[in-house]
Amino acid sequence: MTISADQIPAQTQDRQPALESEMTPPPQYDRDSYKGSGKLKGKVALITGGDSGIGRSVAVLYAKEGADVAIVYLDEHGDAEKTQQLVEAQGRRCLLIPGDISNDQFCGEAVQQTVDQLGQLDILVSNAAEQYTEGDMDEIDAARLGSIFGTNVFPMFYFVNAALPHLKEGSSIIITTSINAYKGNASLLSYSTTKGANLAFTRSLASRLMDRKIRVNGVAPGPIWTPFIPDAMPAESVEGFGKQVPMQRPGQPVEVATCFVFLASEDASYMTGQVLHPNGGVVVGG
């Protein structure tokens, strides 16, 4: 069951990252009609930003498909513990790894902890990000750029470098980019720029790892109802969120997570360097 834009009331949160547990209505991270079929049986996935939003839904659907998961998050402990419960309810293991992904040493430790405790690593999902609404250019100063690139861009390199010694032929790396990497967004200038970097990284890394038969693909969501929205937008802008796309409603995390299942599975064995676009009907180039 989807949620219409009219069901999204004005709201904001006074912390970043925002909490999924405080959103109204709650995002849909699963649906009863989704039945796992063992697509990821015996696999281990590490998901950054796995505590909530798209990351939580990916963790739940991966568990339904037979994978154990490690989720990396900053400090949203309540949301992370909820995700852990959801994964374990599917009979799979879920390792919680809190910390700051802008620190390359932490990223390496997170990968090693995943391998040590879950036995291997087959799927790396680089999903964690931050964003800011910017009215004026002078809001985008060195501190802002350092923060957003330190979260949205540099950790891709940190995690991939740490993961590659453990990834085998047939492994998969999936990067979350954005519709804004293709069409731009005047009010999310710094964020959109980092998402363009995510896109370029996906395509370049796919070519680099072709000989190792490790696939690298991306997902470019449109307006999705996640904690990103109340932590980055003014309360009045959140009301009616999602009306701007042809479907005239926000997407739900579960409507995006299915792309991550496909790209991680053998169903996508002939795809690398590609991007899927769950965006409510917006046609973008590239």
Automatic annotation (TrEMBL):
CDD domains: SDR_c1. The keyword Oxidoreductase applies. InterPro entries: NAD(P)-bd_dom_sf, SDR_fam. Keywords: Oxidoreductase. It comes from the Bacteria. Belongs to the short-chain dehydrogenases/reductases (SDR) family. NCBIfam families: PRK06701.1 (NF005214). This is SDR family oxidoreductase. It comes from Vasconcelosia minhoensis LEGE 07310.
